[in-house]
Specification:
With 510 residues, this protein is an alpha/beta fold. The protein contains 16 helices and 10 strands.
């Protein structure tokens, strides 16, 4: 069965309609136009629902025009000129961009947590105001339920779907703000964050890791807000996307007071998180190593100047609590590279018993790159394990999993995510349900890893799955295949002759 997020309804129709309106505008630019309006619709609808409730209670002393009535319930106060009804009424005005900019300014002015977050360039001359008005009309068609939680869910779904579609449209650049949903779900399912935890992502993009973590906690009996969110993002426009993405779901967060480079300006220097979850840029060059040679984070070796992979790994470890667990995406090169001391750093991570699990991922999962990728899981305290293999590393080879969702991209299915995460959690807990599976998973001893020169490629450990014997006799199979091929050749000849005739009738001879 495929993931539920492929069973799209109005989100897909809405995106297709919105995409038609962008004309020649680049997806990277148009993204902020549309997502900013979706956010504006969300805060306005949430406000209006509470406004109606307070108005009905006016006889009991409730004041619908008192900002404190909203702020106390984590609802943004929306001044009258910034409410969606006011904006929608001017959708066909040539000044609609200026109207939206003023609404964004008013909302930021009235809500301290949103200051510096919202886009405010809708009135720029290069933005087609007629098309902008049409987008306003389109966003206004999102049907809202009376229940504000339902409203939040609907707009959250639209926002997330649009993020994914814009990432696909932007290609490589899209990875700066978006990690495919199925990869995030797998990471969160394997980490299984608990209520009361601190969750940290130092390269948080648009905040998808946090959204899925909150949803996981909620699905397991907790509530939104039962975990503390800490993050950082270097790209200022992406940082604003993350702030809006979390706000649209009512998720409190600390993403720093502004965007900033994680290595050079750590916004959470004293944080010790229970969980680190991240998808850092692959093989990042010029990350600031010369200025950081004596940094306290490089406990296991100074990372090379031309590749930040093991700078990220050591940054994650530095911010883990004594019982912390990190799960993150890296390029496959991190599993075997020995250049510039990377092999020595990886060896120390293994010998000091920090590496918990490695998962090889299928190709074509990411919109951003064709580089093969893997998941690393780092455990700060393996003594918390309930099994007898505390010095072991679990290897999972998931390269053959997933299903194609387009000509270019693949996603992990619900069954894939369930199988991989259950394998890891059963192994970690010492459950009798875990067992090595040829071609899929292997719990390897430290000695085995050392014998493989501390190369962590899962294929080296799990072996090859047994190939099922073909029950069709060879002679019969070849006769069937040659007959099918002959039929295909005949059909090809027929189609070529048909094309020749059609072209001849138009005066073109082949």
């Amino acid at each position: 069965m495929a993931n539920n997020n492929t069973e799209l309804g109005f989100e897909e129709k809405l995106f297709r309609a919105a995409d038609k309106l962008r004309n020649n505008m680049d997806a990277a630019e148009y993204k902020h136009v549309v997502l900013g309006l979706i956010f504006l619709k969300y805060v306005s609808d949430s406000f209006e629902a509470k406004y109606k409730e307070l108005k009905s209670q006016k006889s009991e002393g409730a004041d619908p025009e008192d900002p404190d009535e909203y702020i106390s319930e984590n609802i943004f106060w929306v001044p009258e000129k910034a409410r969606w009804s006011s904006i929608a009424a001017k959708a066909r005005s040539p000044e609609i961009g200026k109207v939206i900019d003023e609404a964004m300014i008013e909302i930021e002015r009235s809500n301290k947590s949103l200051r510096g977050t919202l886009p405010k360039d809708y009135g720029r001359p290069l933005l087609d105001q007629v098309k902008l008005g049409e987008v306003v009309d389109l966003i206004g068609t999102i049907s809202m339920a009376d229940d504000s939680n339902k409203s939040k869910d609907i707009l959250g779904r639209v926002y997330e779907y649009f993020l994914g579609q814009f990432a696909a449209a932007e290609g490589k650049k899209g990875g700066q703000f978006y990690t495919p949903r199925s990869v995030v779900r797998l990471l969160v399912s394997m980490l299984a964050p608990k209520t009361g935890s601190r969750i940290y992502d130092p390269c948080c993009g648009s905040g998808g890791m946090f959204v899925q973590s909150e949803e996981f906690v909620e699905a397991h009996g907790g509530r939104i807000g039962d975990v503390s969110i800490y993050g950082q993002e270097s790209n200022p426009t992406t940082w604003r996307l993350a702030k809006m993405n979390l706000a649209i779901r009512g998720i409190d967060n600390n993403l720093g007071d502004t965007s900033a480079d994680t290595f050079l300006n750590d916004k959470h220097p004293d944080l010790k998180a229970n969980y680190v979850i991240a998808n850092p840029p692959f093989n990042m060059k010029e990350w600031g190593q010369p200025q950081l040679l004596d940094d306290k984070r490089w406990v296991y070796g100074i990372p090379p100047a031309n590749n930040a992979n093991f700078a990220w790994v050591q940054h994650f470890i530095h911010h883990l609590s004594p019982d912390g667990l990190a799960g993150f995406v890296l390029a496959n090169g991190s599993l075997s590279s020995k250049t510039s001391g990377e092999g020595d750093i990886r060896q120390r991570l293994v010998t000091e018993d920090l590496v918990d699990c490695i998962v090889s991922l299928p190709s074509q999962l990411f919109y951003t790159t064709g580089i093969p990728a893997c998941l690393w899981f780092i455990s700060k305290n393996k003594n918390l394990r309930k099994n007898d293999s505390r010095n072991n590393v679990l290897f999972i080879d998931a390269r053959e999993m997933g299903e194609m969702i387009s000509r270019k991209n693949r996603q992990l299915t619900d069954e894939d995510i369930s199988r991989i995460s259950a394998t890891y959690l059963n192994w970690k807990s010492g459950s009798p349900e875990y067992e090595d599976a040829l071609g899929f998973c292997k719990s390897a001893s430290m000695e085995e890893v050392e014998n493989n020169d501390f190369i962590l490629t899962p294929g080296r450990y799990v072996g090859l799955a047994e190939i099922e014997e073909d029950s069709e006799p060879y002679e019969e199979k070849m006769a069937r295949l040659t007959s099918e091929l002959s039929d295909l050749f005949k059909e090809s000849d027929r189609l070529k002759e048909e094309i020749r005739k059609n072209l001849g009738a138009l005066g073109f001879e082949i």
